[in-house]
Amino acid sequence: MTALTDDVFAALANPARRELLRLLLDGPRTVNDLASHFDMRRPSISEHLKVLRDAGLVSERKSGRERHYRLEAGPLMELQDWLHPYERFWRDRLKTLRHVLDEENS
Amino acid sequence: MTALTDDVFAALANPARRELLRLLLDGPRTVNDLASHFDMRRPSISEHLKVLRDAGLVSERKSGRERHYRLEAGPLMELQDWLHPYERFWRDRLKTLRHVLDEENS
DNA sequence: CCGGCAGGTAGGGGACTTCCTACATATGAA
DNA sequence: TTCATATGTAGGAAGTCCCCTACCTGCCGG
Questions:
Q1: Is B65 helix (H, G, I), strand (E, B) or coil?
Q2: For residues A39 and A88, is the Cβ–Cβ distance under 8 A?
Q3: A44: which of A38, A69, B3, B72 lies 20 to 30 Å off by Cα?
Q4: Gap from A40 CA to D13 C1', in Å?
Q5: For the range B93-96, what are the long-range contacts, defined as Cβ-Cβ under 8 Å and sequence gap of 24 or more?
Q6: Is B38 helix (H, G, I), strand (E, B) or coil?
Q7: Alpha carbon of A18 to those of A14, A57, A71, B62: distances in Å?
Q8: pLDDT at residue B16 tops 70
Q9: What is the pLDDT of residues B47-64, one digit of tens each?
Q10: Three state DSSP letters for chain A
Q11: Which residues of B touch A13 (CB under 8 A)?
């Protein structure tokens, strides 16, 4: 298990890269296939894929002259762990809010 | 409910801003209090707080000449929603992996 | 009123991001 | 072998980010 690094947050900060991840939810795809969904030149897609690869969010498998990129959700599951304290915070605030509303209603 | 925007991902892309959120888990704090935890000048902290505010991740309450910043976890809970499809993907992959291992063991 | 403190804003420098157009590399097909 | 296809890499332009040093506003206490 790699630790959740800066790279993951930085990778997610770009909408094209998030869209790439979303496309990969349906399964592995080639670079050209992925690029066809964007209004952007292919080399830029290659660069985005490199950022995602360096963050551990995708992996690549060579097959002839194609490369199939596959989603690696591990870092995103670590992001979920990162969120846990905030979820607790959020629940506490909702509970408090509910109490206040109950007081006012009684 | 505000939709999960680019602003939230962009705000989280900076380690100082993530640290600010973490500090605010313990409750509201003033700018000077927050700044004291960083090796960075106060105006930069103000700027980071503005980014967080624009993303809806913190709110501000004036009290005399101080301003108390409070964590607003709402956008982070939307981030959790954003993660859901990836969690499903992750679970499926684990299940598949387990099947493969079972086959090999039998 | 006046000095000092809390905090925001302006402007700028340096590094980084993101896109582009060439160009390089490798593999499949004819 | 020779051409075309799939992809990566180089280098550069434009924009953005992040930090800084002034500087400004507003509130408190004497």
A1: coil
A2: no
A3: B3
A4: 17
A5: B93/A73
A6: coil
A7: 6, 10, 11, 37
A8: yes
A9: 999 999 999 999 999 999
A10: CCCCCHHHHHHHCCHHHHHHHHHHCCCCEEHHHHHCCCCCCHHHHHHHHHHHHHCCCEEEEEECCEEEEEECCHHHHHHHHHHHHHHHHHHHHHHHHHHHHHHHHC
A11: 9-10, 12-13
Q: Tokens standing for B45?
A: 């902290």
Integer distance in angstroms from the first to the last C-alpha of chain B? Answer: 51
Model pTM above 0.85 = yes
What pLDDT shows up at residue B4?
77
Residues in chain B: 106
pLDDT values of chain A reduced to their tens digit, one per residue, 106 residues:
566 789 999 999 999 999 999 999 999 999 999 999 999 999 999 999 999 999 999 999 999 999 999 999 999 999 999 999 999 999 988 888 888 888 777 6
Between the alpha carbon of residue B94 and those of residues A22, A65, A82, B87, the distances in Å are: 19, 29, 20, 11
What are residue B63's DSSP bridge partners?
Answer: B66
Q: Which of B4, B9, B17, B94 best probes binding to A when mutated, by most A CB atoms within 10 angstroms?
A: B9
Q: Residue B105: pLDDT band by 50, 70, 90 thresholds?
A: confident
| Tokens (6 digits) for B48 | 């980071």
